[in-house]
């Protein structure tokens, strides 16, 4: 009789532990560009985004939301490149890129939707909004998250400006800055 009770108990515990992983809904994320829609000269497109293990590779215009992408459950900061005055339809690269970080860590559980909001109040790094990054955070974003976009460039977090790396300066994988 004890063997039977143990078998039933074991089955019950196994059922409960597997129930947490048994969802038909994928874990997804979207990037929401919450900057206001403005004239072309003042538009704030998001050029790229990143959260945990997933890249938002397509630009997101002001007032728009990206297509959902699959992610894993977790908690991390979100990172983005703001492209002020850039119009993706022109087919050119942005003249200016401003690295941003979510103001808070973003979390999502299995089977849920994470919304990474990019706006002056939800992110840090937009000097025009009065919230520049620390130079350490800017270097992390430009050298580790988006090194291709900042290859050969130096980004100054205090002024939100980019310049070419001067002779003698260097860095594996690119320096901070915007193309």
Detailed description of the structure:
Mean pLDDT is about 85; it is low at about 10-20 and about 170-179. This protein has about 180 residues and is an alpha+beta fold. The chain is built from 2 helices and 12 strands.
Given as residue ranges, the uncertain stretches (5+ residues, pLDDT < 50) are 12-20, 171-179
Strand order of the largest sheet: 3-2-6-7-10
Structural class: alpha+beta
* Shape label: globular
Please write the string of helix (H) and strand (E) elements. Answer: HEEEEEEEEEEHEE
List how many beta strands DSSP finds.
12
Could you give a short account of the major beta sheet? 5 strands, antiparallel
Quote the average pLDDT.
Answer: 85
Helix content: 10-25%
> Given the structure, what is the number of helices?
2
Proportion of beta-strand residues: 25-35%
N/C terminus separation: 73 Å
Gyration radius from CA atoms, angstroms: 21 Å
- How many structural units, i.e. domains? 1
Topology:
Layout: H1 2-19, E1 28-33, E2 44-51, E3 54-56, E4 69-70, E5 74-76, E6 78-84, E7 98-102, E8 106-108, E9 113-118, E10 123-124, H2 135-145, E11 153-156, E12 161-164
Parallel strand pairs: 1-9
Antiparallel strand pairs: 1-4, 2-3, 2-6, 5-8, 6-7, 7-10, 11-12
Can you give keywords for this protein?
globular; 2 helices; 5-stranded antiparallel β-sheet; 3-stranded mixed β-sheet; single chain; alpha+beta; 179 residues
């Amino acid at each position: 009789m004890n063997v039977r009770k143990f078998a039933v108990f074991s089955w019950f515990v196994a059922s409960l532990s597997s129930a947490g992983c048994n969802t038909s809904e994928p874990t997804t994320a979207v990037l929401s560009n919450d900057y206001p829609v403005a004239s072309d000269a003042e538009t704030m497109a998001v050029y790229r985004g990143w959260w945990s293990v997933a890249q938002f590779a397509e630009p997101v215009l002001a007032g728009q939301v990206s297509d959902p992408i699959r992610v894993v459950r977790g908690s991390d900061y979100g990172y983005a490149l703001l492209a002020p005055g850039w119009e993706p339809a022109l087919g050119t690269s942005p003249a200016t890129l401003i690295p941003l970080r979510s103001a808070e860590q973003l979390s999502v559980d299995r089977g849920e939707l994470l919304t990474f909001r990019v706006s002056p109040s939800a992110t840090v790094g937009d000097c025009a909004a009065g919230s520049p990054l620390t130079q350490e955070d800017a270097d992390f974003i430009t050298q580790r998250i988006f090194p291709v976009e900042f290859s050969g460039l130096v980004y100054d977090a205090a002024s939100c400006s980019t310049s070419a790396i001067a002779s003698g300066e260097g860095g594996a994988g690119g320096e901070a800055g915007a193309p």
